[in-house]
Structure formats: structure tokens, C-alpha cells
Amino acid sequence: MLADLFLTPFIDFAFMRRALVAVIAVSLVAGPLGVFLQLRRMSLMGDALAHAILPGVAIGFFLFGLDLWAMSVGGLVACLAVALLSGAIARLTALKEDTSLAALYLVSLASGVLIVSLRGNTRDLLHILFGSLLSIAGDALVLVVAVAILSLIVFAVIYRTLVVECFDPMFLRAVGGRGAAAHMAFLVLIAINLVAAIQALGTLMAVGLMILPAAAARFWAGSVAGMIALASSLALVAGLAGLLGSYHLDLPPGPAIVLMAGLAYLVSVIFGRFGGLARRLFPGAHLQH
Amino acid sequence: MDHIQAHEHGVHFHGPESADPAIRLDNVTVAYQRHPAIHHLGGSFAKGSLTALVGPNGAGKSTLLKAIVGLLPLSGGHIGVAARDKLAFLPQVTDVDRSFPMSVREVVDLGHWRKIGAFGRLSKEMREASSAALRQVGLAGFDARPIASLSVGQFQRVLFARLIAADASLILLDEPFNAVDQRTIADLMALIESWHHEERTVVAALHDLDFVRRHFPHCLLLAREPVAWGDSRAVLTPENLAKARFAAEGWTAPAEICAA
Asked: The whole model's pTM is what?
């Protein structure tokens, strides 16, 4: 019975095994990415960058057809261009970074939709935004796994600097830390993970898997390392549950996975140990001292 | 160091010169959108000196400290720091994320950053130095407490413990006593005085003029234009303070390009 539910799909079908590997890879990186997006107060920026990818992918598709590498490089260029340009505009003009980012990603999204409509059809657009986990090809799977491994290595290198850069950037620079470099490396990590996720969950669902488990983890963990461990675990559980749910109930896997992560978020908002709703509303009788 | 000079608008200001300066300012200008927040400031902070930076809000106190640290680009001039690798900086409490998920101990350990950097490990001596620093600020036993649970005063004590752990010879403090109670101010000021006895150079941006007169031998009065720099009692005269108030209030007027 349990085996039917949890094992048979993977034993019987190669596409489920490939989807499983992709989900594990994407979930493990989603934890640290999401936690630092949250600590840097950049959660919405992740979402904006996911939209910004579109014209690059579309141009790659326009020039080379459905080619994995052309679309990935195009998406990466578009994502980095929007991230860096919005930062530059915020620094050089009176506009704040959130507004310049919103302006640029909307322009980027609109040109992407326009380019897709010239050549492709809406199915291609949906594929980019929401992925096609159950039909992920061999080379796309290699890309997803390679990006995940590379990202975890880079994270290990920049981790301490990035933590201090979030907490107290001026102190870090005063003692000679390379906070700006760590921040740039982090932005690049966001970009390549969003692009790699096109192949699996799609960029929008990939952002969901970053943001929701990290937001849930904030309610349970008291340290950055604890938050990351919990966020990755929650992402993994949501990924497996969503994948199996989509298989048994015949649902699209991307949204199913993100909704499972959403469920973890909802439970955490209500029952979370640190600042959850229930604790705030019913704190219990006050202590002696 | 008892050198004082009044300042006329647009003329280079020369504060005290020292044969062995910890920080040398050479005609320094820092501007925001072309309006100078520090204007043609020259002079030096002698090694082992204890100096207060005073002036009204917006006078350029934080700007000068950040420029010395290297956080802000200069619009003109030069800042020489004798031992940049022995510099420690206390940012304004509003520039630090107090809700960050970190323990008291972890914050104090950051004081060792110069020695361990992004990859090194804390040695036994460094851990003991952190413990001693926590004891010194009166927070022994607070190691595991999340910083989010501390009061502003306790949090400021933690940041001072981090400065102790850093063992710096040049310590820059940006408004260290903002929103902090009297008892904490007294304790932290005693720490600053002990640093002064150990011949560390300390520069602190402060607001309370009576407090500065009592505790700080030297003083630099800023009001976007440097007003006076030298012995505290000679700097904080009614005339200089009136000048500072006048200079700070006149800043919004459309300004000509500075010819100096």
C-alpha cells in the first residue's frame, strides 16, 4: 500500500525518476537562496528577476529554436542585465532600487511576451514560466544538477561574508570584508538558478520553492544555519509530496509542489514558535520574571 | 594639539597638526549631490587622542566617520589612516539589523574578523577574548541569547564587546549613546576612557555638549563647514556654537560652485 503510494511511480517510470532527481537538486539549493533573499529583504526581487528572464529565453528560442543552451544563456543575460541595471539606476539616479527593478522587469516581461508571440505560441510561454518537470530531458537534468552542485559550493565560499553583509555591512567593510563581492556572487547565483529551473519547475514556480520554505523556516529556527537546513528540508518534502500528488491525482507538478510549500508556510504562520499568529494571540499567562 | 582656528566660508580649514597622526585629513570634501557635507577640512587626530565630533544634525559627523572608514567616496582631498588594518568602526545602531537571527556570542566573535576572515577558524585564545569582552561590558552569561531579544542598551554593549574583541588601535564610534540609558552610557564611557588610557585613538560622534566637556579632551565642531577643532573647552564656546547653528541652518539655499 505505502509502496504503491511512494515507490511504484519511481520504479515503474523513468520520467518520474528524472523528475525526482531534478526536484532534489532544486530543493536543496532553494533553501539557502530563499533564506538569504529573505534576510536581504529581497524576496520580491527574486520574483521580479524570474519574470525578467523571459526576453532572453525568447530571443534564444527565436534564433536557435528549442535549444537548451541558447535559451539558458539568453535567460541568464537578461536576468543579470535587469539586476545590474536596476542597481545602477538606483545608485546613479533619484529612483529607489525597488521602483527601478519593477520598471525594468515589466519592460523585460513585456518584450519577452512580444517576442514569444512573434514566433512561438502560448504553450512555449507556459513551459518557460511553469516548467515541464515530467518531461525533463537528459541534458536539461544534467544542467539542473550541475547548477545545484556549483551553487552549493559557491555558497560554502561566500556564506560567512554574506551573513555579516546582511547583519552589519558597514562593520564588515571597515574590517576589510568583501561584502559587495559576496552580494554580487549571490545575485549571479539567483540568476543561474532561475535559468536552470526553467527546465524543471519553470522560473515562477522555482521562486516559490525558494521563498515559501524560507519564510516558513523563519518561524521555527533561531539561527541562519538552522533556517537554511529547515528551508531546504521543507522544500524537499514539498517537492516530493507535490511530485507524488501530481502523479496520483494527475495534476501539473510545478503548481502542486509550490502549493505544498504554501501549506507549510500557512501552518508556520499560524503555529510558528517565533512570532507565529497563535503565539501572538494566545501568549499564555505572564511569567514570574 | 591645542590649536584652534575659526573658519570663514570657502576657505580651507586647518585643524591641529600632529607629528604622529593616527588619521590625517588633507583638504577633505565629501558631497551629496554636489552639496558638501564636509567642506575643505584639514587637520589630524594624534595617536592616542580622544576626540568628540559634535555639531547639529546633518552637520557631517557620520559622513566624516564613514569617509575615514572608506565607506564614502571623497569629492576632493585625501584621508591618510596610519594603521587601517587596526581600525574598528561602530555604525549607528539604526544601520545594523537588530532583528537578525544571531546570538550575542556570534556578534562578539565578529570582532576577530581581521584575524580569521571569511574562512578561518576561531582559536581558543579568540574564544576566551570574546568571553572576556562580554564580561567587561557586563553581559557574562548572555552568550546564547538571540540579539533580537536584547534592549537597545544591551545591544550597544554587545557591539562594544565586539570592539573590545577586535583589539583595534583606532576606534571610530558613530553616535554610540543614541537611545541608550544613563547607566549604560556611564559603563560604556568608562570603557572608552580605558581605551584612552591604553593609548588607543578614539573618535566619537556625539550630541550632548556637557557630556563632551566632561569626558573628551579634544573636540571637532562641524556644521557642514568645519567650525573649530582643538581643546574641548576652547572649541565649545558660545560664539562657536552660534556659528555652528547658523552654518547648519543655511544649507538649503541654492549654492554657487565652490571656487576654493
From this structure: 0.87
